Amino acid sequence: MTTPIIQSLLDTDLYKLTMMQGVLHQFPWAEVEYEFRCRNLGIDFAPVIDGIDRELDHICSLRFTDEELDFLQSLRFIKRDFIEFLRLFQLKRDFITSEMEGDDYVLRIKGPWLHTILYEVPVLAIINELYFRNHHPDADLSEGLSRLQAKIDLVKSENSKGMALKFSDFGTRRRFSRQWHETIVKTLKEAIPDNFMGTSNVYFAWKYDLTPVGTMAHEWLMACQALGPRLVDSQKFALEHWAQEYRGDLGIALSDVAGFKAFLKDFDMYFAKLFDGCRHDSGDPIAWGEDLITHYQSLRIEAASKVGVFSDGLSFPRAIEIARHFKDRLITYFGIGTNLTNDVVGEPLQIVIKMTRCQDTPVAKLSDSPGKQMCDDQGYLDYMKRVFGKS
């Protein structure tokens, strides 16, 4: 019998757990819907749908162990009542459906936000790994190891020039396989420990004594479009509630749910001083960083004391280019995902699971990158564009 892909509920990104804690304390009554999307054209998931169903059944049988909960409780921002909730937690199979509709693979998640939030990352990892097992059953990992070594050599070369790139692994969702992901984490920790700052994957952070990395994801701000008093104030509502939950911890604000210009309008003196920095995830990263620096300067805040986290489809050469550009003007950190964990064989899948509704009303992400926008209601999307002044 094949070993299940997901063997621990900690095999997920930290920001799912930090958001889940916020949901428990502030929005335990919220109801949401998510949908799966594949941005690649012509991808056939029919050969792996039975395997997906078996893996979904399995993750719904998992529970957090006492040892895993002890690790979570060691993180200063995780609260005791959340640990006790997780001690009882189990994913419910009734909240997720997976099927072929004609030639299209359709996966939907619907239920209480508190009880569905942990599906996204392991489900994407399952779909990705099964797809590559099916399409590349004899993949030679030696090519992946060669590419990984080239990345390590590039980082070491920059170290010798006085340019120490600081980055973390953000690649759980689209990894080639769980085994390959673990190989990468082990290799990076041993080879370049001063550059490799940690991983978003909580299980591997626990296993290899690394820093688990992450704050909030798009769904936190998207849900607040429905949970807050007015759409125009939804970003401020989301950031305020995050600050109430973490009181200065996890202080990186995600900046691209309504477009960066709209974000900066809301990111006033209060938030700019309260949060340690911002995360870039769409649009041109150089332009984004320059606009962020200008914004801090307009508020008479020293931009060089603030953090810019870059995480949009990065390669190592691109991350180095960005780090050089902002040297001594902005503290730069990088979250590198697919280029780390799925640079093995073939074209990586661009798959996502995004929230589409909260409280039975549409929510949306107005990305600054073409193709990353997501909403199933054109009328709501047009309304949101008008509210936030995005053409």
TrEMBL record:
Q: Which GO terms describe its cellular component?
A: cytosol
Keyword flag Phosphoprotein? yes
Give the record's PTM text. Answer: Transiently phosphorylated on a His residue during the reaction cycle. Phosphorylation strongly increases the affinity for substrates and increases the rate of nicotinate D-ribonucleotide production. Dephosphorylation regenerates the low-affinity form of the enzyme, leading to product release.
Q: In which pathway does it act?
A: Cofactor biosynthesis; NAD(+) biosynthesis; nicotinate D-ribonucleotide from nicotinate: step 1/1
Q: Which Gene3D superfamilies match?
A: nicotinate phosphoribosyltransferase (3.20.140.10)
Q: What Pfam family does this protein match (any one)?
A: NAPRTase_N
Checking InterPro entries in the record gives: N/Namide_PRibTrfase, NAPRTase_N, Nic_PRibTrfase, Nic_PRibTrfase-Fam, Nicotinate_pribotase-like_C
The answer on whether this UniProt entry bears the keyword Phosphoprotein reads yes
Q: What is its EC number?
A: 6.3.4.21
Give a GO biological-process term: NAD+ biosynthetic process via the salvage pathway
- At the top level, the lineage of the source is Bacteria
Identify the residues that the record assigns to the Nicotinate phosphoribosyltransferase N-terminal domain, covering every copy: 10-128
Q: Name one GO molecular function term.
A: glycosyltransferase activity
**Modified-residue entries (Phosphohistidine), positions:** 218
Which residue range or ranges hold the Nicotinate/nicotinamide phosphoribosyltransferase domain?
Answer: 166-389
Keyword line: Glycosyltransferase, Ligase, Phosphoprotein, Pyridine nucleotide biosynthesis, Transferase
Q: Which reaction does it catalyse?
A: 5-phospho-alpha-D-ribose 1-diphosphate + nicotinate + ATP + H2O = nicotinate beta-D-ribonucleotide + ADP + phosphate + diphosphate
Member of which family? Belongs to the NAPRTase family.
The free-text function statement in the UniProt record for this protein reads:
Catalyzes the synthesis of beta-nicotinate D-ribonucleotide from nicotinate and 5-phospho-D-ribose 1-phosphate at the expense of ATP.
Query: What protein name is recorded for this chain?
Result: Nicotinate phosphoribosyltransferase
